[in-house]
Amino acid sequence: MKVIKVAGLVLGLVLFVASARADVLTVDAGWIAFCFAGNGAPATDTGCVDQPPGVGNPIDITVPGGGADLIVTDAFLHGAAFDVYEGGNLILSTPSVTVDNVSTCGPGSGFESDPNCAYADPLYSHGSVLLSAGLHTIDIFARISGYGGGEGFVQATSVPEPTTLALLASGLGALLLRRRRRS
Fold first, then answer.
1. Helix (DSSP H) and strand (DSSP E) numbers for the chain
2. Residue numbers in the chain where pLDDT is lower than 70
């Protein structure tokens, strides 16, 4: 019995320490910066040159009932591509991009630190994956780093629950029906 208590205490301590060291990404909080040091490097919250750091591996995300889109984009100098893992399983791999083209978000354009611009620009590697409700612990790695290191952004945006969408559709249908009856 004493061995079980000690084992339970050790397991609880390990889980507490593991969860205490994870950075937290809040759903619908907007873009959060991360840094990386080169090919294969993990996301870190230190060493960013152009942006105050936000999150580093591991990253905890608590997703509400309807789910959330996890979105990752390169920023600043385009050319990086990322792999995102959950529990050791690859859940997202952003595509490789060509670095010899001029980007509308690139250096000198005035938008190099704007993650929305980078996400909309096909010359910046970006991607998204749907996360189900619950706690997710993810790790981001720079699969390719066009300039030996850099910065990117990550965000999680909530997805409306199906009942919310059904309610919205029925409300719009009722408005259209009412408008049709008046004419």
1. 3, 9
2. 1-21, 47, 49-53, 100-112, 161-168, 183
Global pTM reads 0.74
| Amino acid (1-letter code) at residue 133 | A
Q: Sign of torsion, CA 166 168 169 175? A: positive
Q: Which domains does the chain have, with CATH numbers?
A: 22-159 (2.60.120.380)
Contact 68, 157 (CB under 8 A): yes
DSSP class of residue 104 equals: T
The pLDDT score that the predictor gives to residue 1 is: 54
| 124 secondary structure, DSSP code | S
Q: How many CB atoms lie within 10 A of CB 112?
A: 19
> How far apart are alpha carbons 96 and 162 in whole angstroms?
34
Q: What is the rounded distance in angstroms from the CA atom of residue 156 to the CA atom of residue 131?
A: 9
Query: 85-94: per-residue pLDDT in tens?
Result: 999 999 999 9
Q: What residues contact residue 145 under an 8 Å CB cut-off, 6+ apart? A: 36, 37, 38, 39, 41, 79, 80
